[in-house]
Amino acid sequence: MGAGLDSLLRIDGKIALIADSGGCGSIDVAPLLAQAGAQIILADKDAEKTQALAVKIGGAARAVPTDIESEMSVLALFEMIRTRFGRLDILVNCAGLTANAPLPETSMAQYDEMQSVNLRATFMLMRESVKLMQEGGQGGRIVSITTIGALHPVLHGNVAYGATRAGVTAMTKSIALDHAADGIRANLVMPGAVYGKTRFHADSQARLAAGERLTGPIQQAGRLPFGMGNGQDIAAAVLYLVGPASAYITGQSIVLDGGFLVT
User: Is 260 exposed, middle or buried (0-12, 13-18, 19+ CB in 10 A)?
Assistant: First the structure.
């Protein structure tokens, strides 16, 4: 008889850090991991939204206001985890910022902001997580939620955004290689056509409010055989990658695109 569902999907007692910036993917990921048995640490600079999510989840969740773009704030977060829990088993990077705009109109300020949230913050979180996982000596799981735009152009105006997300792919694969001996598995979830998974830059919000429309291959008729996805699709993929069922997977990407890449 094969392994039971509990032995494949339960993560009872695991310490899971869910990092975000503005409450994008964490709102779906954190509750599901809590239901699967993990103790949840929510790290986000939006203290009010983070605390509300922790209350919604219940006793298994702890809100820790954290600016993931600040090294000082990130180091303080991990010192708290080290002191309070003594280990870290799971890191899920949920944060994302896009400033959708034509390349000639993309400012260096927009580029730097996306680099800071999407790439630099993710680097710091993964670096500190690896340190703590090494200290614990029990391995760990790292999952970063990015975009199919790191594999294939999805929308016009995503030059800078796509570059930052592709950088996370390279970091993830290197971590998977360098730390396999530590029992650390690092993987990616690459959604497409999922509303709300990425925070829009204020400049992009202004463009959309003024009537500008997003255009690109994914907007074309017939490119999404299964239509739009949702946050639960992402959360389910994350649960798989942080649980026992994915023990033989590292350095890989799960693409959630409703069939876009095969049309």
Answer: buried
The secondary element (H helix, E strand) that includes residue 121 is: helix 121-136
Specify the pTM.
0.96
For residue 192, the domain's CATH number is: 3.40.50.720
- How far, CA to CA in Å, does 43 sit from each of 54, 101, 133, 153? 10, 29, 18, 30
Among residues 65, 60, 84, the alpha carbon closest in space to that of 12 is found at 60
Q: Looking at the domain assignment, is residue 255 inside a domain?
A: no
**Is the residue at 197 inside a domain?**
yes
- Asked if residue 30 lies in contact with residue 56, where contact means CB atoms within 8 angstroms, the answer is no
Q: Are 158 and 106 within 8 A, CB to CB?
A: no
Containing domain of residue 164, as a range? 5-249
Residue 92 CB-half CA count within 13 A: 35
pLDDT tens digit sequence for 142-172: 999 999 999 999 999 999 999 999 999 999 9
Does residue 261 form part of some domain? Answer: no
In the chain, the number of structural domains is 1
Which H, E and C letters describe 157-173, residue by residue?
CCHHHHHHHHHHHHHHH
pLDDT per residue as tens digits for the range 74-128: 999 999 999 999 999 999 999 999 998 999 999 999 999 999 999 999 999 999 9
155 domain-assigned: yes
